[in-house]
Amino acid sequence: MVGFLRIAAPPDETMPELPEVETTRCGIAPHVEGREIVEVIVRQAHLRVPVPADLVERLVGASIGKLARRAKYLLLPLSRPGQDEKGGTLLWHLGMSGSLRIARLGELPKKHDHLDLVLDDGAILRYHDPRRFGFVDWLAGSEEQDTRLARLGPEPLSEAFDGERLYWLSRGRRLAVKPFLMDNAVVVGVGNIYAAEALFLAGIDPRREAGRISRERYARLAAAVREVLAAAITQGGTTLRDFVSGTGEPGYFKQRLNVYGRDGQPCRRCGAELRLVTLGQRASVFCGHCQT
Questions:
Q1: Can you tell me which residues bind DNA (predicted)?
Q2: pLDDT tens, 203-241?
Q3: Structural domain includes residue 230
Q4: Where would I find the H helices in the chain?
Q5: 78 is in which domain, residue-wise?
Q6: Which position among 16, 19, 156, 206 bears the catalytic label?
Q7: Most exposed: 66, 108, 267, 268, by fewest CB within 10 Å?
Q8: What global pTM score does this model have?
């Protein structure tokens, strides 16, 4: 990555993306895996998806298995002592402003702390969401049976994602490459921030038609996606306004952003003024000299 600079947060872009969700998973996993849920406190049930009426009944007494992430969803598998069958999975989405953190008994909830899972060792998994665009839901069957998960593309850090996939899926597509890259059926979890940064690293104009990009350039783009996401996870995500990790820490990747949120500022590579356009109803900043 090129250069370091703190930037102001754009007011309309606050949604936690894949690195923020993965950072959350890594942060809370050591505190919740293998623990039993002894109490569930719901302070606000009216989230984007209403909290299931039977959630307390389903969760109390259940033990949490190994946490997983699929795209921007967190999956908490649950089982009950003495039962061989999997009890189900708690599906969590952080929405635009949500965060999960670990609290302790006696720590008073803050405004917008909507839900607590109290664990048998006194730890609390606490959900905070000022905008209430996130949700927690019950997944009784498999991922393949859930409409929210079944049609998702591959994980960008998995072997199933590469330039060949981008190349063949893009043939005949006339939409711009940036919204193509952000399509969850193509690859999951590459949201606005990281799509902009990956396209900059790959030297690709975000406005270019997806179907007119060569195999070689898609290979560079896939590698750039991997590089950007891996770096963001290492840095704990990108805190623009609301996001904090499972331990309450902000993400530091925003210090390394090259284009996102920097319209009108000089490109870190060539010094040209960065340009702002709207693609797929999303703000997109790029360098007209370095990205062609």
A1: 112, 131, 173
A2: 999 999 999 999 999 999 999 999 999 988 888 754 334
A3: yes
A4: 18-32, 55-59, 147-150, 163-170, 177-181, 192-202, 215-234
A5: 18-139
A6: 16
A7: 108
A8: 0.83
